[in-house]
Write a structure and sequence with these properties.
With 152 residues, the chain is α/β, with parallel strands linked by helices. It has a single domain, classed as Rossmann fold, CATH 3.40.50.2300. 36% of the residues lie in helices and 20% in strands. It has five helices and seven strands, in the order βαβαβββαβαβα. Strands 2-1-3-6-7 form a five-stranded parallel sheet, with helices on both faces. A hairpin with a 2-residue loop joins strand 4 and strand 5. Helix 2 packs parallel to helix 3. The protein starts with 11 loop residues before the first strand and ends in an 8-residue tail after the last helix.
Length: 152
Amino acid sequence: MDPQPSAPGREVEILLVEDNPGDARLVKELFSDAHIVNTLHVATDHREALDFVYQRGEFTDAPRPDIVLLDWYLPRATGDGVLRTMKADAALKQIPIIVLTGSDIGEELIQTSEFEANAYLTKPVTPDDFISLVRSFELFWLSVIRSPPPEL
């Protein structure tokens, strides 16, 4: 069985699916400032995200992510395509997916029966709120939650 993402010395592989370079840079800096031992991989749209998790094209050597942070509003598509594809695949469905939204649409998403993300987070507007969000993310998703091992 693979060690848990929060195990001492275990680097967490995080896939951030985010089309805004400023938001991606901010998340990377905040994870670094919070001393979260991780490798943050960034995909800028739904195609890159799926290529990453399926190790296609330029991502043939990509690691399996321990967690996916998925911006809901991506160019040319919403995060729904990534979410549905991953949750329909037995090899990927155990990877936690946290939807990031710039609005309060998350409540509407969770109320739909087809929403299969593990959680949603509303992107904060201020840097201090973003810092608090990253610390909360680390505490809950990387320290408390234990993911089941990948299916064989």
